[in-house]
């Protein structure tokens, strides 16, 4: 079993919005590894970062990605930083992985003040600029398709992904 599609991309790329719309269109389930991590830890992501540290969060995240890749056949969205781990990128090999790309201005607009996203607690714009630059090569490394999302509706993005999936 494997997800019909794995969505990667930065915070604000639209993974949840597009993922839910894509899952609806395909008649399959939607799953988000952030939610899986929160369920395992029994607390929201900001509390995991605060209480246990980012390293612990990343370990839970890697385990959540591996579990979902093995047991889920719908549309799977990964947290924006999941691709930081080399072993997570390796596990994505052979899967259909769509990178939702987003420019800095649009990402800033979509995440607002970064509520619920601990990495954006201080200076969200500068942090996002850094993360987008640092992670771009990692997203493209794992992606089988890159779809720009700036100035596009979720429906438009879904149509492009479905053409790639041929379903
Ligand atoms: C993170 C992105 C978040 C969440 C956590 C860390 C990151 O997920 O996993 O706050 O490192 O980019 P979203 O991309 O779904 O917001």
TrEMBL record:
Function recorded in the entry: Catalyzes the specific phosphorylation of the 3-hydroxyl group of shikimic acid using ATP as a cosubstrate.
Binding site for Mg(2+): 16
Pfam families registered for this protein in UniProt: SKI (PF01202)
GO molecular function terms noted in the UniProt entry: shikimate kinase activity
Domain of life the protein comes from: Bacteria
Catalytic function, reaction form: shikimate + ATP = 3-phosphoshikimate + ADP + H(+)
Natural source organism: Polymorphospora lycopeni
Residues where ATP binds: 12-17, 117, 152
Cofactor notes: Binds 1 Mg(2+) ion per subunit.
Cell compartment(s), UniProt: Cytoplasm
Record-stated family: Belongs to the shikimate kinase family.
Xref: InterPro entries: P-loop_NTPase (IPR027417), Shikimate/glucono_kinase (IPR031322), Shikimate_kinase/TSH1 (IPR000623), Shikimate_kinase_CS (IPR023000)
Protein's UniProt name: Shikimate kinase
Residues binding substrate, per UniProt: 34, 58, 80, 135
């Amino acid at each position: 079993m494997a997800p019909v599609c794995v969505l990667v991309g930065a915070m604000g790329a639209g993974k949840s919005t597009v993922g839910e719309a894509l899952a609806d269109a395909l008649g399959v389930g939607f799953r988000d590894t952030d939610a899986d991590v929160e369920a395992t830890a029994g607390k929201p992501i900001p509390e995991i970062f605060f209480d246990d540290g980012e390293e612990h969060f990343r370990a839970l995240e890697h385990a959540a990605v591996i579990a979902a890749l093995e047991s889920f056949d719908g549309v799977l969205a990964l947290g924006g930083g999941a691709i930081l781990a080399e072993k997570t990128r390796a596990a994505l090999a052979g899967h259909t992985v769509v990178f939702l790309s987003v420019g800095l201005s649009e990402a800033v607009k979509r995440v607002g003040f970064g509520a619920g996203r601990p990495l954006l607690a201080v200076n969200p714009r500068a942090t996002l600029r850094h993360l987008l630059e640092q992670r771009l090569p990692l997203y493209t490394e794992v992606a089988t398709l890159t779809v720009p999302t700036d100035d596009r509706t979720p429906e438009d993005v879904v149509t492009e992904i479905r053409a790639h999936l041929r379903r």
